[in-house]
Amino acid sequence: MSVNYCTSVGEKTTYKAAVCFDYKKPLVIQEKKKPTRLSKGQVLVAIEAAGINFSDILMCKGLYQVKPPLPFTAGSEICGYVEDIGESVSNVQKGDKVIGILSNYGGFAEYGVFHKSTLFKLPEALSTVQGAGTIISYGTAMMALGRRAQLQKGETVLITAAAGATGLAAVDIASHVFGAKVIGLCGSEKKCHLIKERGVSHAIDYNTEDVRGRIKEITGGKGVNVVMDQVGGDIFLQCLKSVAEEGRILTVGYASGTIPNIPANLLLLKSCTVMGLFWGNYSQTNPSAFTQSILDVTRAINHGDIYPHVGATFSLSQINAGFSYVENRKSTGKVIITTMDGAKSML
Ligand SMILES: NC(=O)c1ccc[n+]([C@@H]2O[C@H](COP(=O)([O-])OP(=O)(O)OC[C@H]3O[C@@H](n4cnc5c(N)ncnc54)[C@H](OP(=O)(O)O)[C@@H]3O)[C@@H](O)[C@H]2O)c1
């Protein structure tokens, strides 16, 4: 194996990382030895910010489909700058500001080693914290609405947890890339206000309003063409009952903690289709479709069509508070962990 010794390691020989030692306990900040060697195709990134995803929280509780061996450093998407490159790396150079994904974990840290194919140049329009919260939510929403549901201009799409990370990305993309009419469901008046600002034509608070009645009224009894659901449980079933003839329903997540059982007769009655999406898995099963979903996002950002919303930032030492903030449904858009002081000034 070809190995490159890092040349620009500077003074620092260790770095901080948020480590999961026990599924039942909070993460612990641990000092780790900084990598000094890079293999072919590897890139050393000084991480400045990392996005929190619901899956990171589930993984640290041992509740996600991927269970890394303990202990592990959590975190799956970042923004930072390239500190060093291994052999055969030409897509990024030392000093480049990049956004990147890790296959499942390693991002809540001051340094990370990435494969070159998982790094992309930070779009100029984005700040560091926005960049750290872009790839997973926007890549998922782009693939869900485009490749999977084949959303068409003028169609009506219903999005659940619409003020959340994936939901708000879907609102942005459905409205501003696909030209769809968007109805958003979320859990408070404040969140309804935000999603209206970000592109939905109608916002429904599913804690206080009659979801099916409102959708019937908004669509003139026809129902919606596409549903993108991040919540599962009873909300999924209400959405399924609100779909139009030949509608498409995307099951993307189960933030409620309940995986819904789907009565097949409802699919028959509406001649509709339920489809799943496991976006991250495409990096293994269909890398070109996976990369394309990210490139479609960065292109739309560079055109000025869409931009990610960062609702809050926490420092690396406050990571457990950041997790609680998302779990307790306080977050809007993306919540970002920063490794630098003065993070708020980067918003
Ligand atoms: N399939 C994929 O490829 C893929 C990719 C990305 C994410 N996901 C999944 O999509 C879901 C959302 O992920 P995210 O990172 O975008 O999170 P998020 O939407 O930022 O946060 C979760 C949101 O879900 C809503 N929610 C409803 N019931 C909840 C409950 N019992 N507990 C907590 N939240 C609840 C809350 O919004 P309200 O208060 O407005 O209800 C909350 O803000 C997760 O299940 C995640 O695993 C799947």
UniProtKB/TrEMBL annotation:
InterPro entries for the chain: ADH-like_C, ADH-like_N, ER, GroES-like_sf, NAD(P)-bd_dom_sf, Zn-ADH-like_protein
Pfam families: ADH_N, ADH_zinc_N
GO molecular function: oxidoreductase activity
Residues annotated as domain Enoyl reductase (ER): 25-337
Transmembrane residue ranges: none
GO cellular component: mitochondrion
Protein name (Swiss-Prot/TrEMBL): Enoyl reductase (ER) domain-containing protein
Organism from which the protein derives: Lottia gigantea (Giant owl limpet)
